Amino acid sequence: MNGVELFLLGRALMKIGEEAMPSEGIGDQATSARTVLIVVSDLRAHPETTVGEIATRTGLPQSAVSAAIGRLRTAGAVIAETDPRDRRRTIIREAPEVSERVTRVRDTPIDDALAAALGTDDPQRVRETVAALEELADRLIPQLRK
Questions:
Q1: Which residues are in the HTH marR-type domain (predicted)?
Q2: Model pTM?
């Protein structure tokens, strides 16, 4: 495997992940699930931050970060509070409690989206692929697999 193949694999996996995430009940959104997940990833790495700081680190437009934070606030995943040291700034942090929406997204299996991407309805092939992905995740992003 080379860098191009790895990059293309990553894009394919992102698309499968997006397909696997439940979207019912959230209505039309101004920003994509991908943008929201990029913002969440940055927020986990920088627990108390601002929209502008997230935009700088991720390269996303500030408007996209603001829209993602809006979605995350609606889902109960983040809280935004005025910075007590500088009342002009709003500090973003993960919510202390996991919301029902976040729990539903995290608990939704990828099997159907993966089967569609693989072009199969063979449950054994899907299970084997899920197991391979889980092993890869354990190795590359162990902090998420706790």
A1: 43-89
A2: 0.74
